[in-house]
Amino acid sequence: MNTPVNFNSKLYDPRHGGPFDRGSSDSWYSRDVNPHYFIGGTYETEPLGKSFMSAEQIEAYMAGYNWNEEFGGKKEW
What we know:
Blueprint (H helix, E strand, L loop, with lengths): L4 E3 L2 E3 L6 H10 L7 E3 L8 E3 L5 H17 L6
Helix pairs in contact: 1-2
């Protein structure tokens, strides 16, 4: 079970493959902002890009990205 992440006074679902998870992952790997998510787990389904996302999903992606920028780390290659 995933515990919601509280960021900027809002709760986000950290489900693997979800928008928040994908945003934090892109930040972790120092990738550019590219809103997307997976209906299933990461890489278990085709990714859905920004044009298929609601405003709330894009917000969750950006929250994940910004959360990792503030509190997370970066992959050391």
